[in-house]
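Sample entry (394 residues):
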Amino acid sequence: QRNMQTILSLISQKKITPEKLVTHTFQFSDVLQAYELLTGKKDEPYLGIVLEYPDSEKQQSSIELKKIQKENKIELALIGAGNFSQSVALPALSKQDVGFNTIVDYDTSIGNHIGKKFGFSKVSSSLQDVLNNKDINTVMITTPHNTHAKLVTECLKAKKNVFVEKPLAMNEQELEDIKKEYENSNKLILVGFNRRFSTHAKKIREFMKEAGTPMVMNYIINAGAIPPEHWTQNLEVGGGRIIGEVCHFVDFMQYISGSNPTHVYAVSIDTDNILYKNDDSVQFTLKFKDGSVGCITYHAVGDRSLPKEYFEVSAGTKTAKMYNFYRTELYHDGKKSKFASKGQDKGFIKEYTQFFDAIKKGKESPVSFSEIYASTLATIRAVESIKTGLALGI
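Predicted structure, serialized as tokens:
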């Protein structure tokens, strides 16, 4: 009625002639434009509005194309929106070709904030929203350590690829449960052992190839003290620092040697100082299948102004030294070469890139499950070794 009154008024004022009036045609996907014309929001006279629906063949091909595209794309769910996710994982993930589908956190206010910041399609406080969503093919888990094993098994049961921050499990029963579910799932799993993906690690491994003897490795970690009340120190929640962090360095030695550990012997300091926990300052001796040996010195004592990590490996007539993932020195036949990265390169971006690439191309995980299993079991057995004073098989 409003449109007809406008037309008659314009004709009477000779501002428009009848032959100038047209019927407007819109595709159904542009229905909002038609609505603006109909309600007068768009001030333009018309005789009629026609909506065109796509024919069935075009509509069907469009649906199939979208389906094909989605199968070749990572649709990611993130479980846990804590400090690590916000400061490390999500900035690195933003550089990847992945769809941010759903973010899950029990604190919905944090979930909403992070979800909007990084462009997630959905925010939820329920794991079921991830497990029941068939569009989601990959899940990243960055929750407290005691939740990892259960979340991993649930996601594998739901046929999702899984990336979980370390540790994979806190005890042998959890590890065996994951192994069983992994073998039934036909999906990829990767634990956040990012250091092996560093350019420094790659250069050392290539340099040490064909050295002629097994390797002798030393890794020193100046970790610094963490208050006893911190959640990672709670054995029921965080599992302690051996379970929660030393697994990183076992994996690094696995990568450099190209061999899995077979035995571990571990000792810790004994102190009455209430500011330090005994198990925060430990030494591991590891024996590897290829005959290599490694010593990990992880300590909370000492001066924290010193660099955190130093690694050294020797075999045959070769030696490599790595300084906190900034600088690497390679020695062979009396000659020295150097490599320095522009910044600290701990391998986060390469880790994500290789994992997602494996999913897209149907390849194996960049780290085999046997390696992940061995490094996790080695740290679990190391805790037992400290208690018993025995060298234990892996």
